[in-house]
Structures are given as C-alpha cells and as structure tokens.
C-alpha cells in the first residue's frame, strides 16, 4: 500500500471480486483447494473485469486502486494480475482469502454432494463456513483501517459468507464468475453498496 494519506474528499472502496471461469466451474464441480487454471472464457472474463474496475475507480469521488490482493490459487492470481495491469496497481497473494476446503469432495459434482448429504455444508470433511469467516473477516477489517481502496479477488465460497455476515438480508446473492461487490467503510465494518456486478 502507499505511504501517502488517502484524500478525505474521496470514497474508500473495497471491490470484492470473484475470479474468472475454470473448467471445473463450467462442469459444476467443487473447486476448493484444487488449482485449475482459467479456461478461455475465464481469461476473457478476467480482462473485462479489469477494465470494468478501472472504470469504477475512475468515477468522480472514488479513490484510485492502490493494491490488488488475491487468493493464492492460480485462478484468482490470474484474474488479479489482469486487474492489476488494468488499474496500474501491484498484486499480492494473501492466504486468508483462499477458497474453502472441500476435503474429499473436491472435484466432485456439487449436485451429487448435495443429493447425498442435503447440502455441501453437511458433507463430512468440508471446511466450516465459520472457519472461512474467521480468517477472511479480520483481513477485511485490516483493509478498512488502512483507509485505501483495494481489490480482493477470491472465491464464491468466501464472498458469499462475507457478504451475508455484513448484510444478512442478501438472500438473492448469486456471485457469478468475474463479478464484484462494492463495499464502503462504516464504523462497525463494511457496508455492501452493491453486489453481483458484472462487466458490461
């Protein structure tokens, strides 16, 4: 992050973005800590997402993006690298934004796991959502305290519980690939200004 103080007349924003598509996404399989690359569609999505976030950050009253953080998995790293190039900011991986660990069900069809156990949450060996939040929420709090505008590229299994913890009324979340949520700081944490935004 930069050493200079942010401009008080501009709005600090956290762009919470999902990575582009992979072959496992397209097949409806649980990704978790598997590390597939972006597919052709995902690479195009990442490029469009970078362009869209560059436009967002250039809107009047917005701060420039000073840093792009991501999960260390290559689908997030590749997406974050495209965003970093588009906005002219450095990129760094952060383990706290890693995907949820689906344990033995990694790579399985999500529909099969739900059919067998009733939900992914009920499948044995799956990382609890509470554990995901315990690592990701403090990372968001640290970004708020810094007062600068940052992009975080992570996964739907991280974004969904984060947004619901900030605003439990967001029942219609879909979190498509290469989408983002727009968060602004409030005293108690973050306010979700918009979500499920996709490049146009």
From TrEMBL:
Pfam families: His_Phos_1. It comes from the Bacteria. This is Histidine phosphatase family protein.
């Amino acid at each position: 992050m930069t050493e200079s103080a942010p401009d008080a007349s501009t709005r600090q924003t956290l762009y919470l973005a999902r990575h582009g598509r992979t072959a496992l996404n397209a097949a409806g399989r649980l990704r978790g800590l598997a590390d597939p690359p972006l597919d052709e569609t995902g690479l195009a999505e990442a490029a469009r997402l970078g362009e869209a976030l560059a436009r967002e950050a250039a809107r009047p009253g917005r701060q420039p993006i000073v840093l792009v953080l991501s999960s260390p998995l290559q689908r997030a790293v590749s997406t974050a690298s495209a965003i970093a190039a588009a906005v002219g900011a450095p990129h760094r991986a952060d383990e706290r934004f890693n995907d949820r660990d689906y344990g033995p069900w990694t790579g399985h069809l999500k529909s099969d796991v739900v059919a067998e156990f009733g939900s992914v949450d009920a499948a044995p060996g799956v990382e609890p959502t509470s554990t995901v939040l315990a690592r990701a929420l403090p990372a968001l709090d640290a970004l708020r305290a810094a007062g600068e505008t940052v992009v975080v590229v992570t996964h739907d299994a991280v974004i969904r519980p984060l947004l619901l913890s900030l605003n439990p009324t967001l029942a219609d979340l879909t979190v498509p690939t290469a989408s983002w949520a727009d968060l602004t700081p409030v005293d108690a944490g973050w306010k979700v200004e918009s979500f499920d935004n996709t490049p146009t």
